[in-house]
Amino acid sequence: MGKKYILILKGTILFTPTAGKFEIHPDSYLISQGGVICGIYKDLPEEYKDLMVEDYGSSLIIPGFVDLHTHAPQFNQIGLGLDYKLLDWLNHYTFQEENKFRQVEYAQKVYEKFANTLVSSGTTRSAIFATIHPQSCQILFEILKKKGLGAYLGKVNMDTKCPDFIKENTQQSLANTEELILAWSDSELVKPIITPRFAPTSTRKLLEGLGKLALKYNLPVQSHLAENPGEIEWVQALFPEHDAYYKVYDHYNLFGQTPTLMAHCIHLTDDEIDILAKKKVIPVHCPDSNLNLTSGIMPARKMLKAGVNIGLGSDIGAGHSLFMPQTIVRAIQLSKIYSLQHEEDAPLTLPEAFYMATKGGGSFFGKVGSFEPGYAADALVIKNENQLSELSPLEEIQHFIYTGNAQNIAARYAAGKKL
Length: 419
Description:
There is one protein chain. The protein has 13 helices and 17 strands. The chain has helices at about 85-100, 105-120, 135-145, 170-185, 205-215, 230-240, 245-250, 270-280, 285-290, 300-305, 325-340, 350-360, 395-405; strands spanning about 5-20, 20-35, 35-40, 55-65, 65-70, 125-130, 150-155, 155, 190, 195, 220-225, 260-265, 280-285, 310, 380, 410-415, 415-419. The chain is α/β, with parallel strands linked by helices. The longest helix has 18 residues, at about 105-120. The strands form four sheets. The chain has a seven-stranded mixed β-sheet. Helix content is about 35%, strand content about 25%.
């Protein structure tokens, strides 16, 4: 057996192969080769006896977190302007901040801090919006690759209904997007994704061109859907030929024709939720930003019952933290509030929300977010050193998710390599 890229971790291994419950392997070995999980073993197999074991004692070993919706250029505006609702927040803060990324020096500083915070927070895979600026987007591609993180990164496209200082020429937007696609499509961990900001800031010509690029290069798509009632009314006014928001994307091959992420999906009808399931579009639940911008509560349980696979997103800067355990907690809390008004929809449980932040969201990247054989070896080592009494593994993961922070993560691995 070749010894190259073999990683052996020892500890209490915990993950969610299904959404309903945690699977726990105390005092066990997690073995991967070439960045891919081989298996979990109670005793170290003979063929690995001479190899180094990274022994973490009784510490938890869990999958790396997956953040399926975040805006890297908004990292420096976290916590600002959150008394506004969505559209006013964009105009008063976000577009102004994103305009700064025409300066590559500014982009370098902010994106370096953003990537460092992803690493420290234990986020090993993410789906990221950049800005309209191709040079700054290129910088973020390079930083993420250097850090060893997995990501889908999109140059944002917007050519209408936004301030002139951040409005693109349609053809130039498409050309810049295709250049980045050609430069990064063969990258192992950091790959391009088609990223119209959202329908209102896109002309029909732009949406048509982006749909063609998605099909031509078989690329995934990310955007926003049904976040705010004012946004939905705006879309109806701008695209009167379509009687539903999602149909704008669908018409232009940006809604399930290739793997698709749609952030928020709060204000959808039952029929629209069924369409999400049918088209295998992943709605990304962003609870912090939905609270901060007074957008509403995603009906997560209703979606799960309809067969929809849900991911979780930090959505900074409308969200205020890249630490995904906070997103897990907030998703559970919001589901409890929702269930008070909708008794037929039970709240999310911790293993369900944990699954969304690992294997559920990780499915967008392929076999990511679990410790089953064949999955990517993305792992975190958790040490709850502030505990005053001995806890079971189930209690330890609860304690970490609800009260932990980045300092509790003792080690981070992405695709079998230590970060």
